[in-house]
Amino acid sequence: MQTFTEKYDLLGCIQCGRCTGGCPVTVRADLNVRQFVNDAYDEDKLEELAKLAEIWDCTACHTCAVRCPKGLKPLEVLIGLRTMIVESGKVEPTVRDALQSVLLEGNPWEKSRATRSDWMEGLDVRIADPDEPVENLFFVCCTIAYDPRVRAVAQNMVKLLNKAGVDYAFLPEDESCCGSEVLTLGEEGLFEMQVEDNTEYLNEFKAERIVTLSPHCFTTYKTHYPDLKTPVVHYTQLLVDLLNDGKLSWKGELPKKIVYHDPCYLGKQGGIYDEPRELLKSIPGAELVEFERRRERSLCCEGGGGKMWVESESKKERLSDTRIKDAKELGAEIVAVACPFCVLTLEDSMKGLGYEEEMRVAEIMELLGELMET
Amino acid sequence: MKTFVCIKYVPDTSEAEVKLNPDGLTVDDSRFSFDINDADNYAVEESVIIKEAQGGEVTVLSIGPKKSEVMIRMAMAKGCDKAVRIEDDRIAAHDPLMVAKVLAGGLKDQEFDLVLTGCMANDDWHMSTGVALAEELGVNHASMVNKVEILDGKVKVNRELEGGLMEVVEVDLPAVLTIQTGINEPRYAPIRGIRQAQKKELNVVSLDDMGIDAAAVNADASQVVLEKLYIPEVESSAEFIEGEPDEKAEKLASILQKGGLV
Amino acid sequence: MGNVLVLAEHRQGALRDVSFEMLAVAPKIAEELGGEAVVLLMGSGMDDMAKKMTGYGLKVMVVDDPAFENFNAEKYQMALSALLDDLKPSVLMVGHTAQGVDFMPALAVEKKLPLVADVVELAFEDGTLKATRQLYSGKVNAVVAFKPADTFLVTFREGAVEAPEASAAGDVEKLDSPLKEEVPYRKFVEYVEAEVGDVDITQSDILVAIGRGLKEDKNLPMVEELATAIKADIAGSRAATDAGWIPHDRQVGTSGKAVKPKLYIAMGISGAFQHLAGMKGAKTIVAINKDPEAPIFTVADYAIVDDMFKVLPKLTEKLKELK
Known about the structure:
heterotrimer, A: alpha/beta, Fumarate Reductase Iron-sulfur Protein, Chain B, domain 2, Rossmann fold, 3 domains, four-stranded parallel beta sheet, B: alpha/beta, nine-stranded mixed beta sheet, 7 helices
């Protein structure tokens, strides 16, 4: 039996504290990841550590991993502790229901699998077939498929692809959750099963690349699916190629000040910083401004790490509130993101702060959809 | 403590549109998600809580199709020890008295102290099966239970009545209890637990295997006939407020204010 | 005999609504059968209640026995089993309540009689007694026909029909208690009130009620803000109680409180019948729910089909402004 120390490589830690120093959650909650790494050496203490509420505060943004001079992933200790709770069965009901829904219906939103493709209604969508090779195989993501707020990301994508004459196909409704949030909620066994099942499923298709709409699926497939045959890209990468090939053109203009928020799963974890910016720059009339905390230092919106199903016990200001206030100070009229979770958390804060009149939170595909020539 | 817990696999129709099949007697469930019946989930948890406190063994008993086995394995992952799944399309499923007879057949020749089941199924709303089962078995019962205390040879339970009142009763064991939702907080069944539960005993049986004469529990045996299903017309006199979310909110606010309601 | 026997339900000295409501249905069924509707009251010290039940022009049979002071399923089953043999009614109607569901299925099994539970409509069609009941969160109705039997057993849903107006007085007939022996297995201990908090929602003028649609407790402050703005108390459905968002004494419905506020704003409540039953006394009902098929809209006066979180902030803001 592998010990906790071996599993998460804790002995490599030199307790320099760069992880906690950079952790965005430290201002939001009582989370000290360095301390956890230190305390987790003692196997006898693990059960006690697992009971601490702050293990659920980590958003899996990976800032600690980016900053660790030893190349460790300190957050994994927290996820390991979550695993102990999950495997005891005594998780929050919201987490329980989300995980169970992934097992039974292939999505964490407690929606029926049979309705996964309902977003396609009224659209001319090409559906993938394992027997028909395709250049771009699209993986939608559970949140985009089911949440009406962000469905437009997929719907606009279909229209754009049809218009640009791209060889593409979307997976049918048997597409299943990538497991990003299952992994970070600590349901290790379920995630292993998802990796196995999804690898087998996706490997049946003959595609040049898998294009993901959510950075969570993107990073998860790239990082945790060693046997996936097909390379995975984020949609912003594909669109920049199309843009450079002159296949995309916009009608009208959007004379607005736009600030781009780097999603943690796309930037810090996926290394994609420039493509979303290039797309925004291509919008006629738009003025792109930058947050002070951007790219590798981008402030997390607290949407990842399973946080869509766990509320922090801390009542301190939400990071998404901080982010929206920063955007307000920059005079941004649009906060553009490339992640469905960021849309939900940031828009929530924007509305909560009462900036609806003067500010808008939008996924890049929403903006492009409005500029598309039809 | 030897406990049986009777559970049912049901569709979730709370948000979805319900359509009927051409036979007019069944609903088209192809677009629904399925899961353990709500109240039965609480019954499973209660059975495991009792086992953890008192020791003993819990057996799952369920009538349902092969695909419901995932629900049974989940109950086992939570701590139930073995299971019997009854599958037989001759059972008159529309009549809880017939269903109770079949379940009683599954408990025949078995020793038990307690039989737990949910107080109501989300799909057919009878609230009858558990109490009928008790009578079939010739044992005591209490329905709509939201607190269980095991005493010596008996059980003290709170029954949930209308109006936020509880009726406290004691019944001698063995007994059937129908469990109300909210009695506990059902735990999560982790996938590793579900995998381990694959090793636990799950017997699939038909009426013939159980020694039940199908003629005693089929539609002919039932004294009621399900004649037809229909989608009731929504009798709504409601004024639907239209527009963008903000407009709706503004219109409603002004209606409430003008009507002197706030 | 062709009679319809209606068991009047009571608790702690008071008759329950369903006892009167069933009198709107029973006489019609009895007429078809060529018999009459008869009320049965079982309890201890029943004179006052018997008087109330006689106000509908029907015969009231009273079993007055200290053994029936509190409800006990075992005693009820034993007594009704004997009374079915003696009185041979064609139909026995009992409320589909925590009492009714606790003994009727057992009685049906014991007497080998057909039972249809949770009936909302009962009528004869071509000589056959047919019961209508609901399935699938009230989205589907089922018509169930009784095959010929000595007695048809029915548990009738509370609140499904309106109680008739009182009419001429009927006779009271005292019956000997059919209970001949002590029941051995079940013992009534006591009634306990669910924990009472600081607010009694049955007395509230305005209620803002939440359901499963609240999703999680972090969303509660948004609702509280609205409630504060319009001086409302917060109540909710069973789902809201189960989730721990509101204490049990704020639950509206058959397993909670029956409320009668001037204004009831239901948000994220689909409107399970159990909930509707508890709030139908509200004068004005506003429902906000994203499912256009939600049954709550069938009782609403004003309806908004949308995500409650999209409507709520603006609604609160506007109501604050208008004050």
